[in-house]
């Protein structure tokens, strides 16, 4: 194996040295060595991509659809996205200038932050939240400001938002809001979205709305900030969760043309364009697979109810998830509040893998996240093992 020359040892971007690697992936890798472990760690749907979507991808390859697509995405896909957003959000986006196709929602977030933020800008991030947001913001030179929502049932209230804005001052330029939430599964009803929109409008904040789980809402209709504030919102979504297409890496953005221009410019520098087969599959999913998420959603609802019921009987406390496919549970008092220690011990002794809540920022301490995107039989066995582990300790 080649060894770097001495003069290049330690050469790397200094901003990158200041951010840790993905804590979720790191912990998952750490416990993967446990023999026979059942992992409920990652947000990976266990369902197969719908057959008609796979067939569209296969046909794309067979038809030699293998050339550079437009950087912003194939026109037919951007048109399909605009049509869906018109139907679901009530916003009439111009597909040619206000919709961009990305390599998953992660690239959409990265292109947005690098396209719109400047060093010193503050970005409000309600926590606990997907930990990747923090390095994505920090690498631009902007400053993520954690807003702990644990005392408010893991949702940001308009009152708390007003308080934080007064405390942080005029450097606050944006808010990054994910709902339904990873890791808590909590979401925002229409009334609360309206109240938040009023505050955000008054303060002229950029809204980065990560709505990747919007098709997986169980007990209420999804309410979008893009509907209320289309003129100041960048909407981010994709097909990874709704159509079990994580490996296709198909995401998208929509927003006002003047904001989308620098985002799309950054996107073109990063990836040039998304691969053709994935885009063709996405067209099929959006045009002919509107009902595909319904089957998944009902399965997730059933799994949620099973996991919540079983864990509450074991002594875990949690707010009932309203969407996505995660349970965010408070560790029983008998185990203390060290979520990393609990998760490591459970992995080693109970052979169940979950993610410590601390990796999701302020408010996650003493909690653990479990994904119920796993198969039913795995969830059943994981709950049996967890129950046995808890009883042994008790």
UniProtKB/TrEMBL annotation:
InterPro entries: Aminotransferase_I/II_large, AspAT/PAT-like, NHTrfase_class1_PyrdxlP-BS, PyrdxlP-dep_Trfase, PyrdxlP-dep_Trfase_major, PyrdxlP-dep_Trfase_small. It comes from the Bacteria. The keyword Transferase applies. Its cofactor is pyridoxal 5'-phosphate. It is an enzyme of class 2 (transferase). Residues 37-386 form the Aminotransferase class I/classII large domain. One of its GO terms (molecular function) is transaminase activity. Its EC number is 2.6.1.-. It holds the Pfam family Aminotran_1_2. Signal peptide: none annotated. SUPFAM superfamilies: PLP-dependent transferases (SSF53383). Belongs to the class-I pyridoxal-phosphate-dependent aminotransferase family. PANTHER family: AMINOTRANSFERASE, ASPARTATE AMINOTRANSFERASE. This is Aminotransferase. The lineage of its organism: Bacteria, Bacillati, Bacillota, Bacilli, Lactobacillales.
């Amino acid at each position: 194996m080649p060894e770097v020359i001495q003069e290049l040892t330690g050469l790397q971007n200094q901003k990158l040295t200041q951010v840790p690697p993905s804590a979720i992936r790191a912990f998952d890798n750490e416990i993967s060595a446990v023999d026979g472990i059942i992992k409920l760690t990652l947000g990976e749907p266990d369902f197969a991509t719908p057959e008609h979507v796979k067939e569209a991808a296969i046909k794309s390859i067979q038809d030699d659809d293998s050339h550079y697509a437009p950087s912003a995405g194939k026109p037919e896909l951007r048109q399909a996205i605009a049509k869906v957003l018109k139907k679901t959000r009530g916003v009439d986006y111009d597909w040619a200038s206000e919709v961009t196709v990305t390599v998953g929602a992660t690239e959409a977030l990265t292109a947005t932050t690098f396209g719109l933020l400047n060093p010193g800008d503050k970005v409000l991030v309600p926590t606990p939240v997907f930990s990747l947001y923090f390095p994505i913001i920090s690498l631009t030179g902007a400053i993520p400001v954690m807003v702990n929502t644990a005392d408010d049932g893991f949702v940001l209230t308009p009152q708390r938002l007003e308080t934080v804005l007064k405390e942080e001052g005029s450097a606050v330029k944006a808010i990054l809001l994910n709902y339904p939430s990873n890791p808590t599964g909590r979401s925002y009803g229409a009334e609360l979205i309206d109240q938040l929109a009023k505050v955000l409008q008054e303060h002229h904040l950029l809204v980065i709305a990560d709505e990747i789980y919007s098709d997986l809402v169980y007990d209420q209709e999804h309410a979008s900030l893009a509907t209320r504030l289309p003129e100041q919102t960048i909407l981010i979504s994709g097909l990874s969760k709704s159509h079990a297409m994580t490996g296709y890496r198909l995401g998208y953005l929509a927003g006002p043309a003047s904001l989308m221009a620098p985002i799309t410019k950054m996107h073109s520098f990063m990836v040039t364009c998304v691969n053709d087969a994935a885009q063709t599959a996405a067209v099929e999913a959006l045009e002919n697979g509107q009902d595909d998420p319904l089957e998944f959603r009902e399965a997730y609802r059933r799994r949620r109810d099973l996991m919540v019921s079983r864990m509450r009987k074991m002594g875990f406390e949690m707010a009932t998830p309203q969407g996505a496919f995660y349970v965010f549970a408070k560790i029983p008092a008998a185990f203390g509040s060290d979520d990393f220690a609990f998760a490591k011990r459970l992995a080693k002794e109970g052979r169940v893998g979950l993610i410590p809540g601390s990796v999701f920022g302020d408010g996650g301490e003493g909690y653990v996240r479990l994904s119920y995107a796993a198969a039913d039989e795995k969830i059943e066995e994981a709950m049996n093992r967890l129950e046995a582990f808890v009883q042994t300790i008790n």
